[in-house]
Amino acid sequence: MIKTNYKTPGAIKDEQEIVQKRTFTKWINSHLAKRKPPMVVDDLFEDMKDGVKLLALLEVLSGQKLPCEQGRRMKRIHAVANIGTALKFLEGRKSMYRGSPIKLVNINSMDIADGRPSIVLGLMWTIILYFQIEELTSNLPQLQSLSSSASSVDSIVSSETASPPSKRKVATKIQGNAKKALLKWVQYTAGKQIGIEVKDFGRSWRSGVAFHSVIHAIRPELVDLEKVKGRSNRENLEDAFTIAETQLGIPRLLDPEDVDVDKPDEKSIMTYVAQFLKHYPDVHNAGSDGLETDEILPVFPSFAISIQSFKREDRLILKEMKVWIEQFERDLTRAQMTESNLQDKYQSFKHFRVQYEIKRKQIEHLIQPLHRDGKLSLDQALVKQSWDRVSSRLFDWHIQLDKSLPAPLGTIGAWLYRAEVALREEITIQQVHEETANTIQRKLEQHKDLLQNTDAHKRAFHEIYRTRSVNGIPVPPDQLEDMAERFHFVSSTSELHLMKMEFLELKYRLLSLLVLAESKLKSWIIKYGRRESVELLLQNYISFIENSKFFEQYEVTYQILKQTAEMYVKADGSVEEAENVMKFMNETTAQWRNLSVEVRSVRSMLEEVISNWDRYGNTVASLQAWLEDAEKMLSQSETAKKDFFRNLPHWIQQHTAMNEAGNFLIETCDEMVSRDLKQQLLLLNGRWRELFMEVKQYARADEMDRMKKEYTDCVTILSGFTTEAHRKFSEPLEVSFINIKLLIQDLEVRGFW
Q1: Contact 633, 641 (CB under 8 A)
Q2: What per-residue confidence (pLDDT) applies to 290?
Q3: Residue 80 and residue 639: Cα distance in Å, rounded?
Q4: Is pLDDT above 50 for 174?
Q5: Gyration radius of the chain's alpha carbons
Q6: Torsion angle of the four alpha carbons 180, 185, 191, 197, in this order, in degrees rounded to the nearest 10
Q7: What whole-number distance in Å separates Cα of residue 389 and Cα of residue 329?
Q8: What are phi and psi of 391, to 5 degrees?
Q9: Which end of the chain is more exposed for a tag (fewer CB within 10 A), N or C?
Q10: Can you give the residue ranges of the Calponin-homology (CH) domain (predicted)?
């Protein structure tokens, strides 16, 4: 058998998760060490389950105080509440790049409370990305102004996809998310120093040379570059990590064996490399609008020159493109107004459409927002305005040419255009899943209504295509061939398009139910108020879950989605799409499994809180009344006190029950209610303590009387027994067999024998 070092994608993924767990744990501990008192994470997946250390980490990173449930009596519901607080806090923060709230993709409280590795690692990566990498790279004004409008948290956490090739050669070199910004920082500060090329955060770092180049850029005297190039990977990595830790104060988040692998984990390396930028930032903030910068450390002059030249070239390209578009528009307008036959007009249209398509990707890339707020520069806005106008004019001309065809081909052409628009229309994903589902549903009905005429139009077109004419009037061959291709596109994709829309509608319908359930759960596992408010929550739960049959509604939606997904995947035939659909279904199933357990447990929790309120209220009322009488009884006679406090054991039980219920409510209720409960218990327990010290001897009064009576009865019986025994043994007895036998029998009966 031939041995191979090939590893499956699953095995590589598992190895990367192990490295991430180790790296993220070290990163977290480096921050928790700053807390007073310090905390330590031993097992990342276990230690995040109760949310306590998660909130502590966010407090250290943000400098804000966050509410946290703690204590030995913590239940899962409190852990979920803690994690919910952390996630809500994160969602309230804004991305350094886009300025919009951070999105937590497929991360929920229940999965963290269950310690699901992929979800916990995803959350930690989001935190590292936002609080370290985004924050640090956004402070580089050159990269900040040239980063894309898309949030790096959204793009990297969910998936990382390379942008398609583009003709734009300038701004793209330093445009992108935090990952690209960090990579550019490395390339311009370290890579050029010793002539190495750092292409990524993976294999480029395996040899250890890249780490040494970063150290060399900071402290050249610490690195012997010639020696570095002649050593093994492991030796270089060990040396780099040691120097960084001992000489530069960079926490050792990685080990050589983490990096010296076929596919090093990018997230772990990014986390470590960002430490260098944190401790030794090279680029200074300058310029109020983030566009102009002249203040760059002298040690990196090439960086400043490159940035400024890129910006000048960008403006030049945009101005040149605007001139081209304006000339294109003038030529297009002239061609449209030229009198000619339909065939010549269509040939002219094709000429312009080819030019349009050649420039389209380049122009669309040029007008991508460069500012964090998503706004375009003045040059970009002017180019976009001209481009939109040209696009609209060209599309209108296409429709006009189709409509100019003799009937019924003109009508078919107009329908064909509408069908193409429908099939290419992109679904706008809104923040509210239900709104997305409703939008898709409306579009689906419109598209079904439009596409139901496909076969009829197709038959009519095929007859025209066969004869190449309409009622004897010739049709331009190129235009006819173009329509034939478009018909093929519509007829071959319409069925799959409708199936995909049905799947997407159900997908977002299911997601809306999940979000609704999570939202309701958060409103039910809060810190509670008085009994009346808890009763209202219970009524709300019963109305939402039981009266509305929420679980049944979810199950029906899920089963329909499952069937639709299977049909869609089968019809699509794409392996990648099948994997995406199955991943969504599996993740949704796991999420619902955990969420449904939490939701089902809410009723018993609310009922337990209400039960404790009832128990507390009843015991407080009865104990207060009894204490009033008991305190008065202290001045009465011993006999009266003894009689009154005869049932003291019962009140001891009542006192214990009151404290148990009160302490439960203190832990589960909000701060104001807890404060009132503590005050009331303090007063009642104080009165109880003073009284009990005076009367505790009466707690066993009934028992003492019973024992005394038992003692007296036993003494009486024993005395009678001994008297009778003495009498029997003192009486003279005539010796005979019968008499002795009778005596023995009598003694046995009396228990003397």
Answers
A1: yes
A2: 36
A3: 57
A4: no
A5: 41
A6: 10
A7: 8
A8: -60, -45
A9: N
A10: 18-132, 176-281
Name the percent of the chain lying above pLDDT 70: 82
CB distance 259 to 270 below 8 Å: no
Average pLDDT over residues 243-265: 89
Superfamily of domain 9-299: Calponin-like domain (1.10.418.10)
Please tell me whether residue 669 adopts helix, strand or coil conformation: strand
Q: Please report the sign of the dihedral spanned by the C-alpha atoms of residue 311, residue 312, residue 315, residue 321.
A: negative
Q: What is the DSSP string of 230-287?
A: TS-HHHHHHHHHHHHHHHS-------HHHHSSSS--HHHHHHHHHHHHHHS--B----
Q: What's the count of helices (H) and strands (E) in the chain, helices before strands?
A: 30, 2
Q: Which residue has the higher pLDDT, 713 or 12?
A: 713
Verify cis geometry, omega within 30 degrees of 0, for the bond prior to 408. yes
CB 604 within 8 A of CB 653: no
C-beta of residue 171 within 8 angstroms of C-beta of residue 308: no
Q: In which band, very low, low, confident or very high, does the pLDDT at 417 lie, cut at 50, 70 and 90? A: confident
Query: Minimum mean pLDDT among 118-127, 189-198, 304-313: which range?
Result: 304-313
> Is it the case that residue 732 has pLDDT exceeding 50?
yes
Between 662 and 277, the higher pLDDT residue: 662
Structure-token pair, residue 208? 């250890």
Containing H/E element for 64? Answer: none
Locus of tokens 């409306």: 442
State in words which class domain 525-699 has.
mainly alpha
Note the pLDDT of residue 150: 35
DSSP secondary structure string, 455-520?
HHHHHHHHHHHHHTEETTEE--HHHHHHHHHHHHHHHHHHHHHHHHHHHHHHHHHHHHHHHHHHHH
User: Own/partner pairs for 530-536, CB < 8 Å, 24+ apart?
Assistant: 530/613, 530/673, 531/610, 531/613, 531/614, 531/617, 534/606, 534/609, 534/610, 534/613, 535/610
What was the pLDDT predicted at 158?
Answer: 37
Residue 106: φ, ψ to 5°? 60, 30
The predicted pLDDT at position 664 comes to: 94
What residues does each domain of the chain span?
Answer: 9-299, 405-508, 525-699, 702-750
Quick one: average pLDDT of 387-393? 90
Residue with tokens 């780490």: 211
The tokens 């609209």 sit on which residue? 392
Confidence (pLDDT) at 413: 87
> Which has more pLDDT, 670 or 78?
670
pLDDT for residue 58 is more than 70: yes
pLDDT in tens, 99-108: 556 777 778 8
Element (H, E) at 70: none
- Nearest Cα residue to 19 out of 185, 291, 257, 212: 257
Closest CA to 362 of 589, 117, 171: 171
Rounded to an integer, what distance in angstroms lies between the CA atom of residue 660 and that of residue 328?
Answer: 83
Residue 652 has pLDDT above 90, yes or no: yes
- What CA–CA distance (Å, rounded) separates 413 from 415? 5
Q: Computed from CA positions of residues 639, 645, 647, 649, in that sequence, does the dihedral angle turn out positive or negative?
A: negative
Closest C-alpha to 106, from 123, 86, 81: 123
What pLDDT digit, counting tens, does each position of 597-627 carry? Answer: 999 999 999 999 999 999 999 999 999 999 9
**Joined tokens for residue 573:** 């035939």
738, 739, 741, 742 alpha-carbon torsion, rounded to 10°: 110
* N-to-C CA span, the chain: 93
Q: Which phi and psi (to 5°) does residue 470 adopt?
A: -125, 110
pLDDT score for 678:
96
C-alpha–C-alpha distance, residues 573 and 328, integer Å: 41
What is the 8-class DSSP label of residue 362? H
